[in-house]
Specification:
The strands form four sheets. Strands 3, 5, 6, 9, 10, 17 and 18 form a seven-stranded mixed beta sheet that branches. The protein has a six-stranded parallel beta sheet with strand order 13-12-11-14-15-16, sandwiched between helices. By secondary structure, it is an alpha/beta fold. The structure holds zinc ion (ZN) (2 copies).
Length: about 350
């Protein structure tokens, strides 16, 4: 297949231009301008697929911390742009060369464009390409009835996964990027996941798939999330009682999915000497932790940023083998028109994974 030629930034969001006003319109949740807030529903032209592109009818988009950071202008974006990058739906239009995808239920990787020439791209690390442009921040994303993506980004959603839960392929691929290559846990290991949000419960499932026995910690505000973790077979523990749950020598593996200073501090203390510590969560700001613990305990510290084609393949294998389930994580599905309430609840960690389904608006 011929590589897509580079396109200047301003042409990515071609459906935002006035010349498209004759085309059928749709509603999208748009970051309208730089600066805090400047987010709201707006009308734009429906996309149409060019060669090697498809249009997905969106079934669900997960609300992610990154969306809140875009709302607050703490994460770079190129307004005006439709937000939303945790997408699932069905391919309803396919450009030349992409016809095989027509009718399939899919979830797309988030990169609309990478240069395919830099050292990172050539090593399969499209996530680290400096020219990377992703849907939901630089190119129109999924908080709309339809979204346009390149066919090379598509992954078929397993038949076992519900039509909304398919939007969790993207966060699971980020978790897989953090926890594999090399795998951080071995059979018989004890593991602690700090933070029972979606990333935490996905991390717990991946660590279990690697053979670890997993404890997951949260605060008293996380009661519903800890209940969901318990229903999936993980040992829940309140952060205030974590000390009593730490094995004698400490956990073999600790993964922080809280992005919280106190959670990270507790995790570094709970991991055993010579153990492995994985940073899954983002703090969004500099924090104060005792980094000497990394030396004093000879910790191996790893992480991951976004996802790669390889981590998406791992997702397909984990889901296909039944080692990770997604549907129990979806606690709320709302129309686009309720975005403000759902964003606010995500901000307050009320619910586990909140999603918007644009079909509910029509
Ligand atoms: Zn996300
Ligand atoms: Zn590149």
């Amino acid at each position: 297949m011929q590589a897509r030629p580079a396109r200047p930034d301003e042409t990515y969001n071609r459906c935002m231009t006035d010349s498209d006003s004759e085309r059928p319109q749709m509603t999208g949740l748009i970051k309208r301008a730089n600066g805090s807030q400047n987010v709201g529903l707006g009308t734009l032209a429906r996309p149409s697929a060019g060669p090697d592109e498809v249009v997905i009818e969106v079934y669900a988009v997960g609300i992610c911390g990154t969306d809140l950071h875009i709302q607050d202008d703490e994460f770079p974006s190129t307004p005006p742009v439709v937000m939303g990058h945790e997408v699932t739906g069905r391919v309803i239009e396919a450009g030349a060369g992409a016809e095989d995808w027509l009718g399939q239920r899919v979830s797309p990787e988030t990169y609309f464009y990478t240069c395919d020439r830099c050292a990172a791209c050539l090593a399969g690390q499209r996530n680290l390409c400096p020219a990377r442009r992703s849907i939901g921040s630089h190119v129109n994303g999924g908080f709309a009835r339809f979204v346009l993506v390149p066919q090379r980004n598509l992954h078929a959603v397993d038949a076992s996964v519900g039509e909304h839960a398919g939007a969790l392929y993207e966060p699971l691929s980020c978790v897989a990027q953090c926890l594999f290559d090399p795998a951080v846990a071995s059979p018989g290991d004890t593991a602690l996941v700090v933070g029972p949000g979606a990333m935490g419960i996905l991390s717990a499932q991946v660590l279990r798939a690697q053979g670890a026995t997993v404890t997951i910690s949260g605060t008293s505000a996380d009661a519903q999330r800890l209940d969901i973790a318990a229903s999936l077979g993980f040992a829940p523990v309140l952060a205030s009682e974590l000390d009593s749950a730490v094995p004698g020598i400490g956990f073999d593996v600790v993964a922080d999915a809280s992005g919280n200073e106190r959670g990270i501090d507790a995790g570094l203390r709970a991991v055993r000497k010579g153990g492995r510590y994985v940073q899954v969560g983002l703090t969004g700001k500099p924090i104060s932790v005792d980094i000497d613990l990394v030396c004093l305990k000879e910790l191996t510290v790893t992480s991951g940023f976004a996802s790669t084609p390889r981590s998406w393949r791992r997702v397909e294998q984990l889901i296909g083998a039944g080692l990770v389930v997604l549907d129990p994580l979806v606690t709320d599905v709302s129309p686009l028109s309720a975005w403000e309430t759902s964003f606010g609840r995500t901000r307050r960690a009320d619910g586990l994974k909140l999603m918007l389904d644009p079909r509910m608006d029509t």
